[in-house]
Design brief:
Helices cover 38% and strands 18% of the residues. It is built from nine helices and 13 strands. It has a seven-stranded parallel sheet with strand order 3-2-1-4-5-6-11, sandwiched between helices. It has a two-stranded parallel ribbon with strand order 7-10. A two-stranded parallel sheet has the order 8-13. The structure holds nicotinamide-adenine-dinucleotide. The site of nicotinamide-adenine-dinucleotide has 31 residues, from helix 1, strand 2, strand 5 and strand 7.
């Protein structure tokens, strides 16, 4: 019988919300194995699926020597760069640290791959809708001018460009996405910006007060994490999907007040809401033109009502 060769994935940030959901999805294919590097600054060890096809290193991606050795020794087929200080608010508090993690560490990995001529099938980087800033033009399209307004957004845009430049200049197979607001199981309510929906859910569950920064009429484009991880897998495993950046979103505008009402409906509880002034760096309205990634068959769109129902069920299961 022929021995099966496993496809190897490196997932940085694999103990985090999106990384853990991705690892779970990758393991459904018995020909995949996953190495996770995460310093657990935001991710949780219990998020990591238990499997002999998962190896976990509790380590920072800013450790150049460690990451270089790992890339040189392992020769991964797929490299998925998700580790980040993923909160815009945190990046306003800790701009230099954000830069070191969100940009420098990723550039250092690209350089290791280039200098050592390490072959791989695809390198993927997770950028963000934050790069569009507060330009009034809607929907946000990949070709429009960017306006990164925080350190988080600056580093996401810079790294996205670096990844694409390494692809172009050194013929590396690379691809990037700009996520809009991702929600779903395993989201850590401690993450104060991208997880607005999970903080709301947490408040409803425990009867804690919830603060709207603004009137709650600000809009976001929410996408279910199950759709996001299928998009990542699809992009890395599709050879033609390369040298490009894709919005990953539903293409729909939803107010925070609408999300609150839907969650109240699903849980049968009332949110104890207060309002404060909008925060520095927060963006009022955002939704995507997601037509570019929709050309691929792997892209799926779970409706907000279905996604929220799955999310609420996952939180109630844990209670
Ligand atoms: N969730 C969203 O709505 C959203 C939107 C846009 C972009 N993104 C991007 O997607 C990626 C994943 O986001 P997420 O929502 O899963 O966030 P998350 O905070 O749950 O996951 C990020 C992970 O990176 C880890 N990490 C942070 N610093 C690290 C370091 N120095 N070394 C190793 N690991 C480190 C954290 O512990 C965490 O597990 C991030 O790059 C984020 O910027 C997310």
């Amino acid at each position: 019988m022929e021995a099966t060769t496993l496809s190897s994935y490196l997932v940085t940030g694999g103990a985090g919300f999106i990384g853990a959901n991705l690892t779970e999805l990758l393991l459904t294919d018995s020909s995949n194995k996953v190495v996770i590097v995460d310093d657990l600054s935001m991710g949780l060890k219990r998020n990591i699926p238990k499997s002999d096809r998962v190896t976990f290193f509790e380590h920072s991606i800013t450790d150049h020597d460690f990451m270089s050795k790992l890339l040189i020794d392992e020769h991964f087929d797929y490299i998925v760069l998700l580790a980040a200080i993923a909160s815009v608010a945190d990046s306003v508090e800790r701009p230099y640290e954000t830069h070191q993690v969100n940009q420098e560490a990723n550039l250092s990995m690209l350089e290791t791959l280039r200098v050592n001529k390490i072959p791989f099938k695809k390198l993927y980087f997770a950028s963000s809708a934050a790069v569009y800033g507060d330009s009034p033009e809607l929907p946000k399209k990949e070709t429009m001018a960017v306006k990164p307004l925080t350190q988080y957004a600056v580093d996401k845009f810079a790294t996205e460009r670096e990844v694409l430049n390494y692809g172009r200049l050194y013929n590396m197979p690379v691809v990037c996405t700009r996520f809009f607001n991702v929600y779903g199981p395993k989201q850590n309510p401690k993450s104060p910006y991208s997880g607005v929906l999970s903080i709301m859910m947490d408040s409803l569950k425990d009867g804690k007060p919830f603060t709207f920064f603004g009137d709650g009429e600000q809009t976001r484009d929410f996408i279910y994490v199950g759709d996001v991880v299928k998009a990542i897998r699809g992009l890395v495993e599709t050879p033609d999907a390369r040298d490009d950046v894709f919005n990953v979103a539903n293409g729909q505008q939803t107010t925070l007040n609408q999300v609150a009402a839907a969650l109240e409906n699903l849980t049968g509880k009332k949110l104890d809401a207060t309002h404060k002034a909008p925060r520095l760096g927060d963006i009022r309205d955002s939704y995507a033109d997601a037509s570019k990634i929709d050309h691929f068959d792997f892209m799926q769109h779970t409706s907000l009502s279905e996604g929220l129902a799955k999310y609420v069920a996952s939180v109630q299961d844990k209670a």
